[in-house]
């Protein structure tokens, strides 16, 4: 494949756009029209950032290779039963711990749940997913807002279902966490915060403490993002995350970009 960039046109651009769409990137209103415009450029930059490439919006050999490599995995937006079963089978190639498997299965059950409308942090299906005990996060914590960024809110809900909790006190951290900084600090206090260069296990909580990522209520310097680890190889980790492009998706990142909380070891 040749190197393409903003302004390029033709079949290779169509191929690129179809791959980006399959990865969950929104190229509306034009879709795969063969014209490398601003929307395609932004999607390419987002992809490059997510896997640790230089972010220049240019699709050269390295970017093509990561986009076209499937690594026996689908990166985002798998919503069918066959996709869930594929991941369940793959996870069980390495993991036999029943508790970790339940967490992964519960997370995969939510794959594809999307905000309605997008950008609202709300939606009938999403609201039901985020209320395992009949009340929302903002109601539980009496927050003066209609909604909050929900990646850690969702992770807490997945753990509550997987562990068959009857209240938030039944979770390992004995509360309903909604911020990346909270789970990160809990992991450090318990001695189960794992640096990214170490191999994670299925069911670990992936932690990205990035300024301005919007996971923490109100943002701030401790804002970050979390997900649930499904699989890892020597270079990359795949996780299922909430609040990614307004939905629950599977993401691939370089292990060097993230850390983990191995909560079952606490």
Provide a descriptive summary of the structure in words:
The chain is 34% helix and 13% strand. It is an alpha+beta fold and 266 residues long. It has two domains: 11-68, Muramoyl-pentapeptide Carboxypeptidase, domain 1, CATH 1.10.101.10; 81-265, no CATH class. The protein has a six-stranded antiparallel sheet. Helix 5 (98-109) packs across helix 8. It starts with 10 loop residues before the first helix and ends in a 5-residue tail after the last strand.
Fraction in helix: 25-40%
Query: Which structural class fits the helix and strand makeup?
Result: alpha+beta
Oligomer: single chain
Radius of gyration, taken over Cα atoms and rounded to an integer in Å: 18 Å
Could you spell the SSE succession in H and E letters?
A: HHHHHHHHHEEEEEE
Major β-sheet profile: 6 strands, antiparallel
Low-confidence stretches: 70-79, 211-222
- Give the distance, in angstroms, between the N- and C-terminal Cα atoms: 48 Å
C-alpha geometry? globular
Physical arrangement of strands within the biggest beta sheet: 1-6-2-3-4-5
Strand content: 5-15%
Number of separate domains: 2
Topology:
Layout: H1 11-22, H2 38-51, H3 61-68, H4 81-91, H5 98-109, H6 124-129, H7 137-141, H8 151-162, H9 180-190, E1 193-194, E2 205-208, E3 225-232, E4 236-244, E5 247-254, E6 259-261
Characteristics:
266 residues, alpha+beta, Muramoyl-pentapeptide Carboxypeptidase, domain 1, 2 domains, 6-stranded antiparallel β-sheet, globular
Brief digest:
The protein is an alpha+beta fold and 266 residues long. The protein has 9 helices and 6 strands; from the N terminus they run αααααααααββββββ.
């Amino acid at each position: 494949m040749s190197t393409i960039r903003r302004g390029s046109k033709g079949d290779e651009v169509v191929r690129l756009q179809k791959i980006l769409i399959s990865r969950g990137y929104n190229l509306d209103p034009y879709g795969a029209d063969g014209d490398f415009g601003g929307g395609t450029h932004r999607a390419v930059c987002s992809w490059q950032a997510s896997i640790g490439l230089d972010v220049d919006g240019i699709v050269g050999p390295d970017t093509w290779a990561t986009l076209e490599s499937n690594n026996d995995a689908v990166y985002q937006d798998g919503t069918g039963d066959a996709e869930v079963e594929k991941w369940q089978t793959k996870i069980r190639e390495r993991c036999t711990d029943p508790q970790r498997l339940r967490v992964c299965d519960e997370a995969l059950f939510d794959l594809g749940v999307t905000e309605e409308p997008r950008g609202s942090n709300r939606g009938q299906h999403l609201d039901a997913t985020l209320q395992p005990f009949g009340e929302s996060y903002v109601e539980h914590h009496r927050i003066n807002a209609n909604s909050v960024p929900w990646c850690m809110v969702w992770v807490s809900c997945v753990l509550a279902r997987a562990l068959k909790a009857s209240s938030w006190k039944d979770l390992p951290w004995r509360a309903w966490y909604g911020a990346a900084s909270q789970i990160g600090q809990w992991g450090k206090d318990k001695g189960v915060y794992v640096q990214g260069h170490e191999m994670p296990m299925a069911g670990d909580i992936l932690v990205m403490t990035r300024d301005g990522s919007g996971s923490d209520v109100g943002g701030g310097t401790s804002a970050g993002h979390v997900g649930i680890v499904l699989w890892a190889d020597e270079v990359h980790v795949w996780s299922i995350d909430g609040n990614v492009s307004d939905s629950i998706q599977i993401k691939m990142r370089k292990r060097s970009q993230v850390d983990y909380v191995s909560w079952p070891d606490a």
